[in-house]
Design a protein that fits this description.
Length: 229
Amino acid sequence: ERQERYQNFAPSLIAGGWAVTYSTGYAMHGITAARVVESPVAGTAILLAISAAMILHALRYKSETATGLAFLFAFASLNVTALTTFSVVATAVLAASLLYLAFRFGWMRLAVAGTALTYLTFVLRYDVSIYGRAGLVNGQATLWIYWLLFEGFDLLDIWRNGPRAGMQRSIFLLNLAGFAGAAMLHHWNVSSTEAARFFAFAAMAYLTSSFVRAWLVRTTELRDEAVWR
């Protein structure tokens, strides 16, 4: 890689090496004929460790595309292994680390992709036996954690950059669609009273968020009436 004549060829070998490493980690538990790790928690941990190493390696190049692909592999690991309490927590940690890097380097495409991947993971891997329990891995609690992560990121971005246009604005809409849509999926496994309480809290949360947004945007040159409208 350090030699100029191989700079175009070396990244392909590096990417191929990570792909083989990831495939091997998956096969250790995910493929019956090659299984050497019986525990689904241990299998998920192995894939997440490989994914973390890929992410750290991608950061060496300070490339949004390379880092995004590494996170894509990490989310893929959570979608091809058994859903456990560990994988639910790991998804939230993965989303938080993605948003930290996106905020630090201003990688808005990474944040947008992370929003979609997080909620898709919830929907595609939904299991009432996991999300129907009490505690932090409960479906409603998990969705609130996701919402706070992405809503907080969006508000911090407004605070840092002011009113946005283009891709940045889609984070708010994706968070709303993912939060409400996934909540409707979870609704079928809870009572109508619990669902009503959940959406009532959601309405109050969005009202509060709206006032925070207006306060943050008022620090810009926009007129007050435009802000509140």
